[in-house]
cellulase (Streptomyces dubilierae), 494 residues
Amino acid sequence: MSWLRSSPPALRRAGTAGAATLALALAAALPATAAAPHDTATTPAPRAATVHEAESATISRGAVESNHAGFTGGGFVNYENVQGSYVQWSVNAPQAGPAALTLRFANGTTTDRPLDIMVNGAVVSAGRAFQGTGAWTTWRTTTLTVNLKAGANTIRATATTSGGGPNVDHISLDTSGGQAGDTPAAVNGQLRVCGTKLCNQYGKAVQLRGMSSHGTQWYSQCLTSGSLDALAKDWNADVLRVSTYVQEGGYETDPRRFTDLVHSLIEQATARGLYVIVDWHQLTPGDPHHNLSRARTFFTEIAQRHGNKTNLLYEIANEPNGVSWSRIKSYAEQLIPVIRQQDPETPVLVGTRAWSSLGVSDGSNENEITASPVNATNIAYTFHFYASSHRDEYLATLSRAADKLPVFVTEFGTQNSAGEGANDFTMAKRYLDLMAAKKISWVNWNFSDDERSGAVFKPGTCNANGPWTGTAQLKQAGVWIRDQIRTPDDFPTS
């Protein structure tokens, strides 16, 4: 897994023209409300949402109180510190289908107070975490997608531990659209690592398939409204990986600009019902500790802004290299708690040794991880491969590892380890068949018009603003991977 794969051509390096292109993309795409965090005490209900106050609901073993500022309506519900205490709302939906359910809460302790969220008697989110918010006057929200029937519905939030639940202010329901319909994010809702699998809101193992951007410092012009529409609707992708390089003209040169671009792309992908992998694309230097301070700043803001979404995954170290697994583990165990302070729900993807090869490229294997896993929950480990270079030993390692660890292939190509040269579709298909059988999610490198064979678009496509749909503008690898992504998803809901 050579660093050369991700190195851009000289003409693509960010200069004045590159900065201008990125600035124009941001100006066109960045939502007007992008600067507002979601977790302030005065956060309004989502647009087109109906608010249902907790104090007006059915309460079992709880009390309506108003002694902590920042609530809406006439007060909030303070759960008794017993398992089984609950708040239940009766709500009406204008039509059957998915809705965004947002619950506003405060937890002044340092202990998680999980709740089972039930809709019409069925658990749709078991043991959902409600971590400490720092104070009883600090209110935050968590959102999940639920399916409602037309007319009357019940929504219950039940404490699952003897500590009871958090203080609950209200729920709001948005049935106007958002992630409505049968998009991947609407069907599956909040993802969670369960055992060795990635599971949806129903606790069922799922496989996501999609594309990674190239570095946004070079190829933001390939991420347009039209290209994202094509990825979601023509390619039928489930997930977009947004690759923010830290070095090589990336984040470290202008943290504000690149963070805002990530905000914008998250919003655009969310509007299309896609999952988003927020990729902290450290590569050179290979020691992730070199960028730990920057990562803390970046992920704190991303998690603050988007932690109430149910369609994100955080990839905290793209390809550690030249360092031991213990060094990578140390980094992860310092960064993950920072993220969890802002977002207790979103899965975190941890890079592995030797360019995320599970150590194979340094003569090791998955056993170094199973012997000393990261001390954190709701995480998966990443694996990268390039089919022409990474043969049977790598494939066998992935197969073994997936039986012991949750694994997400956040980057692969059908070419050599530099992302160029001839395609080996036969070997790549062996990997894809294995990943389908074991429900290992994957993302292909890359959704750009870079001149290398691993970029899906022919050179010049992005500067010409398409065309984005169909296959005329695709290289050989693009045609092949589009066909693989377009095959039907298997998203169990019962």
Observations:
- The mean pLDDT is 88.
- The CA atoms of residues 112 and 131 lie 4 Å apart.
